[in-house]
Amino acid sequence: MTHGVSPVHCTFARLCLVSAGHLLFPPSAVAQGSVTLYGLLDTSLEVTNPGSGWAARLDSGAYRGSRVGLRGRESLGADLQLVLALESGFSSADGALAIPGTLFNRQACIGAQGRWGEVRVGRQYSPLYIPFKGDLDAFGAGTIASGLSNLSKITPYASNAFTYLSPMIAGFTTTLMVAMRDSSANDGNGIAGYYVMFEYQLGAMSVQYARQQTHGAEALRANVGGVSYDFGRLRGWLTFFNGDGGSPAYHAAGGSISAQYWFSTQSRVSVGYARALECSSAGAGANQLSAAFEYDVSRTLQLYFNTAYLSNRGSATFTLRSVNVTGLPVAYPGAPVRGVQLGLIKRF
């Protein structure tokens, strides 16, 4: 004889579970808001010679900073939404926070979004970081292969910031940010800096320009911009940059040219050349040649390989660095730097 549960009992149990779910989580509340957990692990092996011999090290965040975060969204009605972001950067090599003692060191902001655009308040990416990171050279301004990243200087994050992001109007978008000083700065005007970014898209062409001016002991003025064109499988970039200030002190200007070719929907190769002139020292500067290969194993797993040669001139001390990786200091002013990097990115 077979023992089991009658269909009537099963139906009754389902009704009880559904009723309890509606009591604990009302359908209207579930539909109005959502919070998403996401993250990224970027780990690579780098072998570099800064003029004093080859050195190997394990890097985290060479291409895209390792992070974990929460994104929230809630409908407020009338096409208005509340948005929030909490994002913590860390090292996938040793687990340490990207900024010691600061948990949400990448983002900690809240805002509102509608047809008129978006407003955010709190710690955020600077507007220069968005075009600088992803759309101004073939290397996404990441890894040792990006001459744009190695030879220029910007501020990637801003605290105590108010930001407005416009919708696209006739191909044109803009981002405006003002950062307030921390109360400990004891400064009368209360402004830590301003940032602006403009972008124009016309078919396969994109034109971008961004500027920042920060204040205080590490004040940095910087400009970066360029144009790109998508030919289909091939895309090319032409970029310029300059800056003055920061810590360590930076005073240089230059540009880069790069291209990326897609062999398939999964694999691509990039090549590039970048040049910078040090404005504070006659005859000083650097040139960089780079190549990279990327392969998407799946939608969430990517492999990358990069190689670069950087030639310093005069008293210049530029080196090969990455997004969240400090470059090895050159052995002497004018020393050449060369390196290779093999890494993977896992998103979740």
TrEMBL record:
<keyword id="KW-1134">Transmembrane beta strand</keyword>
<keyword id="KW-0472">Membrane</keyword>
<keyword id="KW-0813">Transport</keyword>
<keyword id="KW-0732">Signal</keyword>
<feature type="signal peptide">
    <location>
        <begin position="1"/>
        <end position="31"/>
    </location>
</feature>
<feature type="domain" description="Porin">
    <location>
        <begin position="24"/>
        <end position="314"/>
    </location>
</feature>
<dbReference type="InterPro" id="IPR002299">
    <property type="entry name" value="Porin_Neis"/>
</dbReference>
<keyword id="KW-0406">Ion transport</keyword>
<dbReference type="Pfam" id="PF13609">
    <property type="entry name" value="Porin_4"/>
</dbReference>
<keyword id="KW-0626">Porin</keyword>
<protein>
    <recommendedName>
        <fullName>Porin domain-containing protein</fullName>
    </recommendedName>
</protein>
<comment type="subunit">
    <text>Homotrimer.</text>
</comment>
<dbReference type="InterPro" id="IPR023614">
    <property type="entry name" value="Porin_dom_sf"/>
</dbReference>
<keyword id="KW-0998">Cell outer membrane</keyword>
<dbReference type="InterPro" id="IPR050298">
    <property type="entry name" value="Gram-neg_bact_OMP"/>
</dbReference>
<dbReference type="GO" id="GO:0006811">
    <property type="term" value="P:monoatomic ion transport"/>
</dbReference>
<dbReference type="GO" id="GO:0046930">
    <property type="term" value="C:pore complex"/>
</dbReference>
<keyword id="KW-0812">Transmembrane</keyword>
<dbReference type="GO" id="GO:0009279">
    <property type="term" value="C:cell outer membrane"/>
</dbReference>
<dbReference type="GO" id="GO:0015288">
    <property type="term" value="F:porin activity"/>
</dbReference>
<dbReference type="InterPro" id="IPR033900">
    <property type="entry name" value="Gram_neg_porin_domain"/>
</dbReference>
